[in-house]
Amino acid sequence: MRFMFVGDSCTIGSAGDCTWRYRMWQHLESGFDGPYDIVGPRTELYDKETGAAGSDAYADPAFPVAARRHLAGWGEGWLHMAPLIGEAVTATKADVLLVFLGLIDLGFYTNSDQTAANVRAFVAAARAANPRIRAVMMPVIPNVRAESDAPFAAECDRFNELLAKTIADLDTASSPLLLATTPETYDIHTDTYDGTHPAPSGEHKLAAAFADAMHQAWGLGSPYEGVAAAAP
User: Fold this and answer.
1) Cβ within 8 Å of residue 218, ≥6 positions away
2) pLDDT of the residue at 229
3) What is the CATH number of domain 2-218?
C-alpha cells in the first residue's frame, strides 16, 4: 500500500516542525497490518528564512528520508495540485491519497465554487493515472482568519458543504473517496502555533482524523492511539 500526502503549508510544514505527516508515519509504523510505503516527489520542509522549500530540518532527525516524501507546498492548493496529481500518481504508483487542501485556495485564489471544481479536476486526473486510487480528504478546519473575517468564514463553510457533496457524487466502489471529520476538539489557540499551522497537539489530531477515517471505512490500519512527540 502506497500512501501520498497532498497538501498546502499545513502539510509540508516549516523548518523545525514535526508535521502531521510524521505523526502518521509513526502511526503506520506501529499499527499498519501490512507492507506500506510513503511516496511523493518531494521531501523538503518550507524554509521561512529563504522563502522556499528546501529545508530538511525536521524536529526529529530520525524521521527516515523515505518516509518524508509528499506532494505538498507552501501556498499551494487544489488549484495547483490538480495539474500535478496525475503525473505524481503515475510516477509513484500511489494507492491512497491523504489530502489536506482548501484554506489557501479560498484565502488567495478561488471562491468556493471554483475550488470545488478544482477538486473534481484533481480526482479525474488521479483516476486517469490510477483508476483504483483511493483518497481521504480533510475539509477546511478552524483557522484564525475565519474568526475575524465573516465572508471568508462563510466561504469556508460553503466549500466544506460542496466538498462533502462532491465526494458523495464521485465516490465509487472501485475508487472510493472519504471525507475526514474535523477533529471535534481542534482549538486554534492550543492546536496551532499561529492560528493556522498545527502545533504538536494539532499534528496528532490531524493524523488521527485521517487514520481513523481509513480504519472505520476501509479497515485499513488501526485506530489512532498517538505517539509521544519528539522534542523540538
Assistant:
1) 134, 176, 178
2) 37
3) 3.40.50.1110
